[in-house]
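The methods section describes the discrete structure representation at length, but only in general terms. Each protein is reduced to its one-letter sequence and a matching series of backbone shape codes. I believe one specimen quoted in the main text would settle the matter. An entry of this sort, consisting of the sequence and the corresponding backbone structure tokens, reads as follows.
***
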Amino acid sequence: MNKTLLLKNVKFYIASLILLTCITSSKAQETITGLQTNPTIKQLYSNNSRTKTVQTKALLELPFIDDFAKTIGFTDELLWQDKNVFVNQTYAFDQLSIGVATFDAIDETGAIHSNASILPFSADTLTSNIINLNYPGNNTIFLSFYYQPGGLGDTPDIKDSLILEFCYSDTVWNKKWSVIFNETDSILSEKHFYADTTNKTINGDTITDLKRVFQQVLIPVNEAQYLTDSFQFRFRNYASLSGNESAESKASNADHWHIDYVILDKDRSINDTFIVDIAICEPMGSLLKNYEAIPWKHFDRASAYEMGDTIQITFRNLTDTIVNPKKTFEIEDLLGFTGTTPFERTQEPEMQPQTKYTYERSIDYLFPYNPSIDSALFEIRSFFDENDIEEAPFQWNDTSRFLQKFYNYYAYDDGTAESGYGIIGEGTENAMVAMRYNTYKKDTLRAVQIFFNQTLGDVNQYSFKLHVWKDDNGKPGKIIYTKEGLKPQKEDEINKFATYIIDSTLVLEGNFYIGWQKVNTPEMLNVGFDVNKINNDKLFYRFSNSWVQSKFEGTIMIRPLFGEELNFSTSTNTTTLENHSPDYTIYPNPANDQLNINIDDQFTTDYRYTIFDIYGRIFIDSNENQSNIDISGLNSGVYFIRISNPYGANTTKKFMIVR
């Protein structure tokens, strides 16, 4: 080990010991931490590992354009070489369009980078595929992009940076641009490494101001060594793990940078700052007023209170002209028989250049309640009329989709954790956390689900009690149920909630609270925290004599389950097999030429695969055990796959083919 590396490791371990020592005297508080794993990336990496193939990448021609709206998780492999960054719609603040590429401290496997340190370290890399820039002497080629530090994630620390490099001769990379937080911790300093360009300093009143602004960068690509048929560029970030918090969060994800609208093209100038695009800039949300999901058996009572009166789309005119696109909405019943309900296309008053607008229209739609089934699923779609948008190469951000779920639980969260929540410090050894819910129908509480974040070294394995409280004037009152001796469950499946069965009859109606109590530890139970759904008015904690409302905007990921008795028996008798529907995932979705299937079943490996369209026409029907299905002969469109086991139980899922 060289002296530099040795010194670096010594500093890291000394800092870690200091942090561990300080935790025993840390102040009692509620806290938000970064994630130590990314479940979405971890699942994608696992899927890719099973089906990994070597593909020859074609030479790219101009224009090179990516607005990161086409995929979720990994980047588009037709454009990019590596998969370190996280493509998402939830981490940036006030997005220019749906989808950004997020640089952080987590690698392509979904784990913290192996070289992570409390000192700045090289983290994510995003490298373009090879691009043909064989335009000798051309001075009109420019690369532009937008970037935002922090957003809804973690703000980069002092000396953390994002850099851009150009490549020639296959292996020689030159730095062309960088942005870094300077010592004042409230100023971004951009540096340009080419002639005739002035570096700039971006001042903000506070970090909050800076982390909520997208800055545009425009860089010429005119030097002779880059004007070849083997040009590449790449972004890299330098991150540093937290060094001023508790042992729980010192190794958590940190230092987010988000980029959007990466455009490389010719016939541009330094003044080419407008983007010819009208983009949906916020994902669609629930049509319910208070919840993301409610039990289907409760919908007949809940609909009068929960059903929204409007459906909306938020979009941005990024052009330098006035626009007025037609907006279209559809709701499709994915599990029932009502099909797709379209809403009339409408036009609103003209929209000025460089403005953001939320369009709302009333809807005379009610989810068709059917008491004979125990669940329902609807897809809500919003999109522009493509004929109204000229010269728009960003067609992926013209459509937004939302799955409205009606299963057996109430949920405030959208199923994805951006952070971790907990109570920590001396004096919180037996602290409690409670979330308020309202059940619209008198029903039996069968279980409580909690999303526990995965942590390094399983340090999240602390005992806790599960509580249910009555309501007392808007705060938790008397405890009406307790289950002791619990620990965060280690789920084999990724991105799943841990389920804790209620082992006595507990009938609820109206307001109630569910949550946990720590057992003799100052450490936090790291529970998933959704920063995009604001419900802290219903979140309370207590480590002294009274309940306190949470100060953090978001919602903890905890859900009450109602209805029929839950059976988690693993018996393999015939009755169990007959009622056991296959559990599987399909990917990618949308698909192109191949559909991959991952079946997780302890009972059997014999299945029948049936693929049919929305009209019921069967295209593929096979009883061969296969994990990869060739769909290259099918046209683009919406399809369904039904997988049946030998006992007749089946599960149907929807997918799309896009070419």
Summary: The helical segments are 3-22, 39-50, 207-210, 299-306, 574-579. The mean pLDDT is 83.
